[in-house]
Amino acid sequence: MASADGYDTSLPLHRLQVQGASCGGCVKSIEQTLKSVAGVSEVSMDLVTGIASVIGVVEPKNLTDALDRVGFPATLIR
């Protein structure tokens, strides 16, 4: 099921504030890293706001740990 903004609303949405992204290459790296985490279905990163939206059944700590390993500290937005 998709909502008006195009996200699958049957799965949890996690939003992360990501630090250190300054270019399209950073966005690509962040998105690829998050997509590699088990349970992630969709990822979208906004370079302007620094917010990554992640759809999937996954522990938020797994997302932030994955980003920490590639040099992009992130915190979960509640």
Write structural notes for this entry.
The chain is of the alpha+beta class and about 80 residues long. It has one domain (about 20-75): Alpha-Beta Plaits (2-Layer Sandwich), CATH 3.30.70.100. It contains two helices and four strands; from the N terminus they run βαββαβ. It is globular. About 20% of the residues are buried. The model has no long low-confidence stretch (mean pLDDT about 90).
What is the class in the CATH system?
A: Alpha Beta
- How many domains, in number, for the residues? 1
Overall structural class, as computed from helix and strand content, comes to alpha+beta
Order of helices and strands: EHEEHE
Question: Count of helical segments?
Answer: 2
Brief rundown of the structure:
28% of the residues lie in helices and 28% in strands. The protein has 78 residues and is an alpha+beta fold. It has a single domain (22-76), classed as Alpha-Beta Plaits.
Q: What distinguishing features does this structure have?
A:
78 residues, alpha+beta, Alpha-Beta Plaits, four-stranded antiparallel β-sheet, 2 helices
Secondary structure topology:
Elements: E1 13-18, H1 24-35, E2 40-46, E3 51-56, H2 60-69, E4 74-76
Antiparallel strand pairs: 1-3, 1-4, 2-3
